[in-house]
Amino acid sequence: MSESSARQVADGQIEAFVARLGKLDTGGRARLKRNAGRSLAEARDVLSVFYRLLPPGVPPYYQEDYFLVATLYPLAEGGGRGNLGTTLRAARSPTNGTGIDRRVEVLLDADGEQLPFRLRQAIRFVYSQRVRVDWSQLLRDLLGWDHPERYVQRRWAEAYFGEPAPRAAQRDGTVTGVEP
After folding, report:
1. For the segment 16-53, what is each residue's pLDDT rounded down to a tens digit?
2. Largest CA distance in the chain
3. H helix intervals, the chain
4. Which of 20, 74, 83, 162 is the 20 to 30 A CA-CA neighbour of 54?
5. What CA–CA distances, in Å, run from 130 to 28, 93, 107?
6. Number of structural domains, the chain?
């Protein structure tokens, strides 16, 4: 299987998983929510729900990431766009800026053991600010979290701390939406 076709399969699995999460009843959501931040080994009274949601063919080494997203899903609304850095930036305000900046730095430095706890905090914060999460993108990012180049962390940092992208370029080369 080529790299592009493998990526298409993975993207299809991710989209199917998030769609199934969206159709989950309140009882299933409550069971997942009670396990937020736990690993599959620590999970209680939720494995049947999780494995019904999991699309066929997801490798065992990715199942922890799928489980983490499943347990975080009931904590915030879906339908957002962009990575978690973009989402956290949208939730940032002048009154919470210093605290959330530090939390984002800690999240970006989190290892696999700390990540579930830090993500749970971030998702609860985003929900409190009424900002939506792109669950499919979050899952894609978690699958790449341990990559040696830390490309996920760099993308989140750029989306959160970087300058916003210009809105539009005019024909004469000037940019609208950016003040000098």
Report:
1. 999 999 999 999 999 999 999 899 999 999 999 999 99
2. 62
3. 3-22, 26-34, 47-53, 63-72, 84-91, 97-108, 115-128, 135-143, 151-161
4. 83
5. 23, 12, 20
6. 1
In the numeric block, which tokens belong to residue 56? 């066929």
Question: 25 by DSSP, 3-state: which?
Answer: coil
Residue in this structure with the two tokens 């899952």, named with its chain if needed: 139
> Is 180 a domain residue?
no
Domain membership flag for residue 25: yes
CATH code for the domain in which residue 113 is found: 1.10.520.40
Residue 36 and residue 50 in contact, taking contact as beta carbons nearer than 8 Å = no
Give residue 176's identity as a one-letter amino acid code.
Answer: T
Output the pTM of the full model: 0.86
Q: In the block, which residue shows the tokens 């915030």?
A: 76
Residue 179 belongs to a domain: no
